[in-house]
Each structure stands twice: as C-alpha cells, then as structure tokens.
Design a protein that fits this description.
By secondary structure, this protein is an alpha/beta fold. It contains 8 helices and 7 strands. The chain has a single domain, classed as Rossmann fold (3-Layer(aba) Sandwich). Bound molecules: zinc ion (ZN). The site of zinc ion has 9 residues, from helix 8.
Length: 236
C-alpha cells in the first residue's frame, strides 16, 4: 500500500523542513497553504519557490510531490484582532501570550486540511508545530494536537494521524534535521527561499535568510541558526 501525506506548508522554515521529512517517508505528498490575511503574506509567494527548488534539486522527492493548494481563510483576519493580521505593534498581552497569537488558527488549519485529506484519501497530516522552542502559542502544543486528532477522527469517522516531526526539537535541531534530510543543498533552499519574518521583510538577507532580524520570528530563527552553527552535529 502506498503511504500518502498532506503537509501544512506555509512557506516558512519549519513547514519546509517538515515537507522534506514527509518526502523522505511517504510515496505521495500533497501540500496545503492558507491565506488568512497574514501580514507576512509574502510567505505564500515563497511556497512556490521552495516547491520549484525541491523539484529541480531533489528529483526523487519531486516525483513524490503531488497537488499544491492555497485555501482562502481571510475570514480569520476579518474576525480576529492580532498583530499578525493587522498593522499594529507586536507586544505581550495580559494573558501572557504575544498579540501575534491568532486564536484558533492551527485548529482551523487542521480542520480544513482534514476535509481535504478526507476527499483525497490521505491518512497522514503533517504540521511544523513545536512546543520546545516557540512563542508559547497553545495551539502548537502536543496535547492540543493530539486532542484535535481525536476530535477530527471522531467527527469524520476517520483515522487521520497528525504528524508533528518538530514537536520536541529546538530550532537548532530543526536546522540540523534539514541538513540530515537534504544536506547543505536543502539548508541553502531553506535559507534562501523560506520566510519566517512576521513583518514580511524580504529585503534584508542575513546568513540565516531574509527578515527584519528583530521580530520574534526572526529572533527564533536567528538564535536557532547560531546554535546550529556552533554545534551542527545535533541529530534530529
Ligand atoms: Zn522579522
């Protein structure tokens, strides 16, 4: 039986690494992205470039790549008030969460992805969520996603498996994982073509990729890259 997967692919570092992880393991891999009015909408343009680079530099993986789709979830921007979906300063809220937290985002992403997976007969749904080295978003936690897996399976009479290969890795180990999966060629694709910066900055190129260099997403990416460079031997 051939194994298939649907990867939540935003165009960022984490989901690009997950895509490589899935392409190494599954015979057929489809991708899904979401346009939710994110301030860093430029990440959606990066998606195509990453897919193109994977196809040209990793033909074995390219042969496994299936359909890609971007779903319009602009309703998220319409009904929420966050620094990720509007032009406001990034700051900490009273509840201890940064205002870049988009309530329900990952819950909705997985629900929509499972609707697609249901139609496509796909069992494994892969996401780059991580609770080791993260912004504290509660919908990135392992328990949240395990509970969601149960809810989706009950609600759709299915047997989906939510895969989160980065859940227990820090950001340095995520860089190391990309290297193990696809060598420096993949690390270069991730640096050059993926996007993490919340402010959507694609003008400034650092050693670790593009970004403003100071927003929380850039800080995480930078710190992870620095410690990966110090001890690149971390095995995923
Ligand atoms: Zn930034």
């Amino acid at each position: 039986m051939s194994l298939n997967a649907l990867v939540l692919f935003s165009g960022g570092q984490d989901s690009a690494t997950c895509l490589a992880w899935a392409l190494e393991r599954f015979d057929h891999v489809e991708t899904i992205g979401f346009d939710y009015g994110q301030r860093h909408r430029v990440e959606l343009e990066c998606r195509g470039k990453v897919l193109e680079a994977i196809r040209s530099e990793f033909p074995r993986w390219g042969a496994r790549l299936g359909e890609d789709r971007v779903i319009d979830l602009s309703v998220i921007k319409a009904i929420s008030d966050t620094a990720l979906t509007s032009d406001k300063a990034i700051e900490m809220q009273k509840n201890g969460l940064p205002n870049t937290f988009v309530p329900g985002r990952n819950l909705l992403f997985f629900s929509v992805a499972s609707t697609v997976a249901y139609r496509r007969g796909i069992k494994h749904i892969v996401g780059g969520m991580c609770e080791t080295d993260y912004s504290g978003y509660p919908d990135c936690r392992d328990d949240t996603l395990k509970a969601l897996q149960v809810a989706l399976n009950l609600g759709m009479e299915s047997r989906f498996v939510i895969e989160t290969p980065l859940m227990w890795l820090d950001k340095a180990a995520t860089w190391a994982m990309a290297e193990v999966l696809g060598g420096q060629r993949l690390v270069e694709i991730i640096k050059q073509e993926t996007h993490s910066c919340y402010l959507g900055n694609r003008e400034t190129r650092h050693e670790w990729g593009y970004g403003c260099g100071t927003c929380p997403a850039c800080e995480l990416r930078l710190r992870g890259y620095q410690s990966y460079r110090v001890s690149p031997g971390i095995s995923p």
